[in-house]
Records
---
Amino acid sequence: MADTDSGSEQPVPRKRADARRNERALLDAAAAAFVTSGVDVPVRDIAARAGVGVGTIYRHFPTRADLIVAVYRHQIEACAEAGPALLADSDTPHAALAQWIDLFVDFLATKHGLAAALQSDDAAFQTLHTYFLDRLVPVCDQILHAAVAADEIRPDLDAYGLLRGVGNLCIGAGTDPRYDARRLVDLLVAGLRVR
Amino acid sequence: MADTDSGSEQPVPRKRADARRNERALLDAAAAAFVTSGVDVPVRDIAARAGVGVGTIYRHFPTRADLIVAVYRHQIEACAEAGPALLADSDTPHAALAQWIDLFVDFLATKHGLAAALQSDDAAFQTLHTYFLDRLVPVCDQILHAAVAADEIRPDLDAYGLLRGVGNLCIGAGTDPRYDARRLVDLLVAGLRVR
DNA sequence: TGGCTACCGGAACGGCGTTCCGCTTAATCA
DNA sequence: TGATTAAGCGGAACGCCGTTCCGGTAGCCA
C-alpha cells in the first residue's frame, strides 16, 4: 500500500509545541471527563478541564467521535488483537468467542454512554461507528467462522449483527444494578450454539 | 381503596371544550410526528402540527414521556393483556413466551427512537420507563414463571432483565437493514432454554 | 531579533427544552 | 343576553449546548 508522500520528504513537518501540549491535555481531560460524566459530557466541560478554549477542541478533534476514538484507541486495538490470540490458545472456537466477547463487554460496559453513542444515528458519531466496525468486525468474523466450521454454532448470524447486538445489550450497563448486561450477552451467545 | 373524593360530588368537573380539542389535536399531531421524525421530534414541531403554542403542550403533557405514554397507551395495554391469553392458548409456556416477546418486539421496533428513549436515564423519560415496567414486568413474570415451572427455561433471569435486554436489542431496529433485531431476540430467548 | 503564520480563546449564532405572563375566550349566572 | 371570572392559550424569553469564526498571541525560523 503506497503512502501519500513519496519516501524521503516529511509532508507533516511536526506540529508546534503548544499544539502538541494542548492535544495531550485534551486527551487527558476528555478521558477524565468521560469517566465522571460519560462520553456525552458537554464540550465546554472538557475544554475547561484542559484549560483551553472550545475552538481548540474542534481544531484537534473535529467531531466528538474523533475525540472518543482517540481516547479509547489503545483499548480497542488491544481487544482487536486479542482475537486471533484467543482463537489460537483456546480449546474450542466457541470458547474463544465467549472469551473475546467478554473482553468486548468488559470494555464497553465500563464506558458510561459509549454503547449508546455507538448505536446513535447522529452524524457526529459516524466516525465512531465506522472505526469500531472496521476494527472489530473482521476479528469477530474470523472467530465466528472458525466456530461455524467446528459445528459449534449456528451459521445464521454474521459478525456485524452479533457485535451490534452485544453493543446494544451493553447500553445502560453499570447504571442500574438490576440490569446485568453480561448475563444477557452470555445467554445470547448460548443461543448461538447448535443443539 | 378509597377515592380522593367522597362519593357523590365530581372532583374533576370536566375540562373546557378548547382544552379537550387541543389535547386531541396534540395526540394526533404527536402520533404523526413520531412516525415521521421519531419520538425525539422537537416539541415545536408537534405544536406546529397541532396548531397550538408550545405552552399548550406542557400544560397537557408536562414531560415528553407523558405524551409518549398517552400516544401508545392503547398498544401497550393490548400487549399486556395478550400475555395471559397467549399463556392459556399456547401448547407450552415457552411458546407463549416467544409469541408474547414477538408482540413486544413488533411494537417497539416500529416506533422510531422509542426503544432508545426507554433506556435513557434522562429524567424526562422516567415516567415512560416506569409505565412500561409497571405494565409489562408482571405479565412477563407470569409467563416466565410458568416456563420455569414446566422446566423449559433456565430460572436465572428475571422479567425485568429480560424486558430490558429485549428493549435494548430493539434499539436501531428499522433504521439499518443489516441489523435484524428480531433474530437477535430469538437467539436470546433460545439461550434461555434448558439444554 | 524580527517577521511570518500556525494556533489560540472565547464571543457569537442557531437549535432546543422549558418557563412565564399578559391576553383570549369558554363557561356560568343573573 | 350580557357581564363576570378564571381556565386556558400563545409565544416571547431564558439557559444550555454544539458549532463557527475571527482578532489577537506566541512559537518557530531566518
---
Amino acid sequence: MTDQLKLENQLCFPVYSLAKEIVNQYRPFLDKLDLTYPQYLVMLVLWEQRQQTVSELGEKLHLDSGTLTPLLKRLEQKELVSRDRSKTDERVVCISLTGNGERLQEQASKVPEQLINSMHIAVEELETLKICIQDILTKINQHKK
Amino acid sequence: MTDQLKLENQLCFPVYSLAKEIVNQYRPFLDKLDLTYPQYLVMLVLWEQRQQTVSELGEKLHLDSGTLTPLLKRLEQKELVSRDRSKTDERVVCISLTGNGERLQEQASKVPEQLINSMHIAVEELETLKICIQDILTKINQHKK
DNA sequence: TAAGATTAAATTGCACACAATTTAATTTCA
DNA sequence: TGAAATTAAATTGTGTGCAATTTAATCTTA
C-alpha cells in the first residue's frame, strides 16, 4: 500500500473531520436558536451589515445561489430576513434583517463562548490553528487566477 | 457588534471554508476516477484492509449507516465493492473490494501528489497544519466521555 | 428458554453543497 | 438602437450528513 494513500497520512481527512466535528459541536447551541450552521453563518454576515445582496452573501461565504436561495427562503419563513428585488436592478435580490433577525443577535452573542467552553481547548491553540488555516486559504486563493 | 460574533474572529468559518476548498480541489482529480470525495475516503479505508463491516467503516470515517448505506450502494453499482450479510451474524453487512475496486488504487495513487501540486503550498506547512488539527481533534474526542 | 434489551443496517426526512441549466434583466457595442 | 453577451437568481438533479425511526437479528437474564 502506498503510504501516501493511507488515510492517516493525508491532510484532507483531518480537515474534513474537524469541520464536521465543529458543526456538531455547534449543533446543541444553534438548535436553541432554531438555526442550522450555514444559516448561522448567514446571520453572522447580516449582523455585520444588515442588508446585502445574495451575491454579496455568496462571496463572503463562498456559496452560490443554488445553496443560498433555498436557505434564505427558510430564513424568510422564520421571519429573520426579508427578500426583495432591487428597485434599480431587478436581477438583484436584497436580503435584509427583520426585527426578529436583529433581536436574535442578543441570544447568539453567547454562542462563541459556549462553544469554546464545550471544546475544552485553550483559546491560544485555537488562535494558532485559525492563523495557520487562514494562511493556507490565502495561498490557495492566490493561485486561483 | 460583539467582536466575538464577527465572522473573521471565529475559528469555525476558516475550518468550514478550508474543508470545502479541499474537497473542491480534489474534485477534478476524483472526477477522473468517477468518485466523490466521501466515496474516495471509503475506498482509502478499504485499500488499507479489503474487507470491513459497515460499522468499521463508519467508525474510521465518523459516518453512520444513514450516510454509508446509500454511498456503499452507489459503490456497489459501480462494481467497486460488494455488500454481503455476514454468515455468522445476519445483522452485519461486510463490504469487500472487487477486482475493479482493487485496480482503481493504481490510478488513485497519483491523486495525493497531484493535489499538493495543485494547491501550491509547501509540504511542510501542510504537515504542520495536519498535526495541529489532529491535536485539536484528539482533545475534542477526549472530552467526549 | 422466552421476554426484554441491545445491536447493526436500513429507511425516512430535512438541509446543505455544487454542477448545470434556465429565466429574466441589464450591458455592450456593432 | 437593437441583437448578442453578460449578469443575478432561481431551478433541477445528485450526493452527502445527520437525527429519528424502523426492522431484523442477537444477546441477556430472570
